[in-house]
Amino acid sequence: MKAFVVLVTLIVAAAAENCRETRDCTVTTCSTGSEIHCIDHQCTCTSAAPGSGSCTAASDCSGRCDGGRQHHCIDGHCRCAHF
């Protein structure tokens, strides 16, 4: 039982890697075609959002992200977050 608790703790820690900026994300890995970004102090995988892609705020992004995920404006480009 003790080993199970330790395993669950490690999985939660890896799944919720905290960050102040993207370079702090050393444990989280993303699938092919995705990039890692620090969003709201959590390491998050993102993919390119549909549309023109240029933005200054998330409200500039149009279209829909897969699975109802949220748009984010990162470095002037619309991205879809994958949680």
From TrEMBL:
GO molecular function: serine-type endopeptidase inhibitor activity
Source organism: Crassostrea virginica (Eastern oyster)
Keywords: Protease inhibitor, Serine protease inhibitor, Signal
Official protein name in the record: Serine protease inhibitor Cvsi-2-like
Signal peptide: 1-16
